[in-house]
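Case study 2.
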Amino acid sequence: MSGMRVTLRQLRSFEAVARLRSFSRAAEEMHVTQPTVSKQIRQLTEEVGLPLLEQIGKQVFLTQAGEELYATCAEWLNSWGRFEQSIANLKGLKQGRLRICTVTTTQYFMPRVLGPFRVQYPGIDIAMEVVNRDRLLERLSRNEDDLYVMGVPPEGWDIESEPLIENPLVLLASPDHPMVGRKRIPFAELANEPFLVREQGSGTRMTLERVFKERGVALNVRMELGSNEAIKQAVAGGLGLAVVSLSTLNLDPSARELAVLDVEGFPIQRYWYVVRPKGKQLSVVAGTFLDFLREHSQILRPRG
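Prediction:
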């Protein structure tokens, strides 16, 4: 038995005849002639060395060897079907296109995962749009991208979102601010401090406003700035305090010009979420990237 040479076509022909109990119906299903099916079965029988089928009149019966083979070949053909599907998917990965839309703050960590992904799947063409939250929601509502990465998924939308990695928000001051070095500063003291904030609609701003409201403390906004970089520069220049995502401080040489304050309630624990419209059939490429993100989320952890 060790030298058996059986082809996939022979197995397919046998499986069809055994299932349908008819050579003519098997030939019809496989879009081949009946003599072709008979020839495949004959070759298979010779390889196995025992009769597999018995034909009595118009009826087809399985021999014991035929029963054994039929039980096994259904599994083989299933596995082979899955293999063919995987190969088709991998071929798709070689020339696929991935569209990601992320909020501006993620520009500090998304490249760290896109790099290794490009190395593993060099054929994939990646387009990453970096926009503010309002613009991201606009693109999401029009289904313009495969995946969206953001800090605060919109409520009441028909979306699927899953937390990807922690996104702690920290409170920053200039190094010579009087609160620097103090431990467990009461939250209420923040009422007297001027804050530098992102524009309305930013996820960080929404979280900040919610936290102040929950604690019944007024948020004193001194200035609204359009980017995390501008905010950090303004904090370093002593213009006020700011709450930023810890990921914006990663690998940042200017971090020495900034101090993280120890105030009760901080860091505020949040997550980065990967979002997509509910029920959206992800492309093979997008599904592969999502799995890659889940497996490699430790690359993205804030190094604070």
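The first helix runs from residue 8 to 20.
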